[in-house]
Amino acid sequence: MAFTPLMIDLSDRHVVIVGGGKVALRRAKTLLENNAVVTVISPKAVEAIVYLWQEGQLLWKEKVIEATDLKDAFLIIVATNNPIVNQHVINWAPKESLINAAAEVEKGNVAFPTYFRRGHLSVSVSTNGASPQFAVKMKEELERLYPEDYGDYIHFLSECRQLIKKSLLDKFQQKLLLKELLSEEYLDKDRQRRFIEWFKKNDRKSESY
After folding, report:
1. How far apart are the first and last CA of the chain?
2. Which of 60, 142, 143, 162 is 20 to 30 A from residue 83's alpha carbon, by CA?
3. Strands 75-78 and 14-18, bridge-based pairing
4. Separation between Cα atoms, residue 86 and residue 80, nearest integer Å
5. How far apart are CA 73 and CA 148, in angstroms?
6. Does the pLDDT at position 157 exceed 90?
7. Alpha carbon distance 204, 208 (integer Å)
8. 110 in Cβ contact with 100 (< 8 Å)
9. What is the per-residue pLDDT for 207?
10. How many CA atoms are closer than 13 Å to the CA of 103, on its beta-carbon side?
11. CA-CA distance, 6 to 43, in Å (whole number)?
């Protein structure tokens, strides 16, 4: 089974997590970081989930899952340690809902890759469930390759792209300039600042003609 890589906006989407253990907690943190509306359904929950509930960051229903609990769920996370309960949840899921089965990825239609962010840059790694440990290993290698300051560099590229796209340069010149900015020399913040100052100054001159 192969999943299609996809970026998805979960802002204000209702997500139901069935289970209250460590896997459920990891999923909840990821979803909350992306502004999803999270409901955890489980008779018991780890302390960190209870804390998030007490802080009002998610809803915790301290009960056994029922089919009606899944109504209107955009995404359902199946994360209990009981295979029978997990299968019931999958069977009860509305046809239009996305499903992530944490223990048996192939039973769902959504997989959560391991990932990290550097500002606007998101880097994710997945083995389609074949070896989660290898995915983590590769992610750690990529984190070392792209340290925290890459977030500032990506922000610089974003700012430059907007300036260049609005300029009087033709499409070919724009493309060449954007490609030039991928050079490692532009990782230097002073070089970034000087380029933006230079471009704004020269772009204003071209507008005056």
Report:
1. 59
2. 60
3. parallel
4. 6
5. 35
6. yes
7. 7
8. yes
9. 53
10. 16
11. 33
